[in-house]
Write a structure and sequence with these properties.
Elements lengths: L11 H17 L4 H7 L4 H4 L1 H24 L1 H20 L4 H29 L2 H11 L2 H20 L2 H21 L14 H5 L1 H6 L2 H31 L4 H29 L1 H25 L4 H28 L5 H29 L3 H24 L1
Helix pairs in contact: 1-6, 1-8, 1-9, 4-5, 4-6, 4-16, 5-6, 5-9, 6-7, 6-16, 7-13, 7-15, 12-15, 12-16, 12-17, 13-14, 13-15, 14-15, 14-17, 15-16
C-alpha cells in the first residue's frame, strides 16, 4: 500500500539514476588524484582534501535537503540538487586552483548527496514500510556497482583525455539525469502537508526524530552496519597488499566476493523484503554480519591469514549488510512518514558521517596491528544489532 493512492510511483530506473550520482562522483576521480596533485603543484595530502570535503559536504547537505523537501516538496528540491551537481561538476572541470576545485566539489557533493537521500524519501512516500525495504534493496545495489565501475571509467578518461575530462563526463551525466528526472518524476510528497508551516517548524522535526527511540534504533543499525563496511573498504587494501604482500590485482580479484555478497543481500531484500518484513530483515542481517566477523576472528587466531581466509568469512558480513541497510533505512523513514524527508537526511548524514570517521580510525589502527580490522568491524556490527533491539523494545 502506498502512502497516498493519488501519487504516481516512480520507476526503479529513475531512483537508481538519482542515487548513482553521489557514489560516482566520489569514486570516479580516485585514479586521477596523483596526476592532479602534479598539475596543481601540491602534495598528495592536499589533493586528498577534494575527497574529504566531498564527504563532509554530502553529510551536511542531507541535514538541510530532507527538511526542505518536507516543506517545499520532493520534486523541486531534487531538481535543484541535480542542477547543483551539474553546475559543481562543470565548475570543477575548469578549476585553476585547488581552492577552486574544492569549492566546486562542495557544490557537486551537496547536489549529489541530497538527491541520494531523497531517492529513499520518494520510495517511502510511494510505498508501505516493507515494500520500501524491498525497493531500497534494489536501489542500494548502486552503492556496490557504481564504486566498482567508476574508478575504471576515471582511469580511462584520465589516461586518454586528462583529469578535466572526468568532471566534464560528470557534467554530462548530471545533465542527463536532471533532464530524465524532470520529465519522469512527479511530486510524491503528500499534498496536504506541502508548503505548510515555516522552515523553523520543519526543522523542529530534528528533535522529534532524534528523541524517538524507534528512529534511533533504525538509524543506529544503518549507521553502524555501514561503518563496518566502510571500515573494511578502508583497511582491506592495506591488509592484503602491505601485510600479506600480495599485488593490488589480487585484492581486486578477491574484493569481488564482497561486492557479490552485498549484491546477494540486496537482491534478497528486493525479492523477499515484503515477505520477510523490515524488522526481521534487519535482525537477520545484523546477526549474519556479527557471526561472520566473529568467524573471521577465529580464523585469524587459528589459521594462516591469507586473502582467501580473509575475504571468504567476511563475505557473510557483506550479505548481512545487504539485508540490514534497506530494512533499517525503510524503518527509519517509517517512524514518522510525514517527516520522511527529514528522516532520510538525518539517517543519511549519520550513516555517512560515522562511515567517514570509521575509515580514518580503521586506516590508522591496521597500521599498528592489522588484525584490528576484524575487531573494529565486529564492534560496529554488534553495536548496530544492539541499536536495532533497543529500537524494537520501544515499539513493543
Amino acid at each position: 500500500m502506498t502512502s497516498n493512492p493519488d501519487i504516481i510511483k516512480p520507476s526503479i530506473l529513475v531512483l537508481v539514476a538519482m542515487s548513482a550520482l553521489q557514489p560516482f562522483a566520489l569514486n570516479v576521480m580516485a585514479p586521477a588524484l596523483p596526476g592532479m596533485a602534479v598539475a596543481f603543484d601540491v602534495d598528495y595530502a592536499t589533493i586528498q582534501l577534494t575527497l574529504t570535503f566531498y564527504l563532509v559536504s554530502v553529510a551536511v547537505s542531507q541535514f538541510f535537503g530532507g527538511p526542505l523537501s518536507d516543506r517545499f516538496g520532493r520534486r523541486p528540491v531534487i531538481i535543484t540538487s541535480l542542477a547543483l551537481y551539474t553546475i559543481g561538476s562543470f565548475g570543477a572541470s575548469f578549476a585553476d586552483s585547488v581552492i577552486g576545485l574544492i569549492g566546486a566539489r562542495v557544490v557537486q557533493a551537496c547536489g549529489g548527496g541530497i538527491a541520494f537521500a531523497l531517492a529513499r524519501a520518494v520510495i517511502r512516500d510511494t510505498s508501505g514500510r516493507d515494500e520500501s525495504a524491498s525497493r531500497i534493496g534494489y536501489v542500494t545495489m548502486v552503492m556496490v556497482v557504481v564504486p566498482m565501475v567508476a574508478p575504471l571509467c576515471g582511469g580511462m578518461l584520465d589516461e586518454r583525455f586528462g583529469w578535466r575530462s572526468i568532471f566534464l563526463t560528470s557534467t554530462v551525466f548530471g545533465f542527463i539525469v536532471l533532464l530524465y528526472v524532470s520529465l519522469r518524476l512527479k511530486e510524491t510528497r503528500a499534498h496536504h502537508g506541502l508548503g505548510a508551516g515555516s522552515l523553523r517548524h520543519v526543522f523542529a522535526a530534528f528533535p522529534l526524530l532524534i528523541g524517538d527511540r524507534r528512529f534511533l534504533g533504525y538509524a543506529g543499525a544503518l549507521a553502524f552496519c555501514s561503518a563496518s563496511f566502510f571500515g573494511f573498504l578502508a583497511a582491506a587494501p592495506y591488509v592484503v597488499v602491505t601485510t600479506m604482500e600480495k599485488s593490488p590485482d589480487v585484492y581486486g580479484a578477491y574484493f569481488v566476493l564482497s561486492a557479490f555478497g552485498y549484491m546477494v543481500g540486496n537482491f534478497v531484500s528486493g525479492r523477499f523484503g515484503r515477505r520477510i518484513g523490515t524488522d526481521r530483515m534487519v535482525l537477520i542481517g545484523s546477526a549474519i554480519s556479527s557471526l561472520s566477523i566473529l568467524t573471521e576472528i577465529i580464523v585469524i587466531a587459528t589459521l594462516p591469514w591469507t586473502p582467501f581466509s580473509f575475504f571468504v568469512p567476511l563475505m557473510g558480513n557483506a550479505i548481512g549488510n545487504g539485508l540490514t541497510m534497506p530494512g533499517a533505512t525503510a524503518g527509519a523513514l517509517s517512524v514518522r512518514p510525514d517527516l520522511a524527508g527529514s528522516a532520510a537526511g538525518i539517517a543519511g548524514a549519520f550513516q555517512l558521517g560515522l562511515g567517514a570517521a570509521m575509515t580514518v580510525a580503521t586506516s590508522h589502527a591496521v597500521e599498528s596491528w592489522p588484525p584490528s580490522i576484524a575487531l573494529i568491524m565486529l564492534a560496529c556490527a554488534f553495536t548496530g544489532l544492539v541499536c536495532h533491539i533497543f529500537g524494537r523494545k520501544a515499539a513493543a
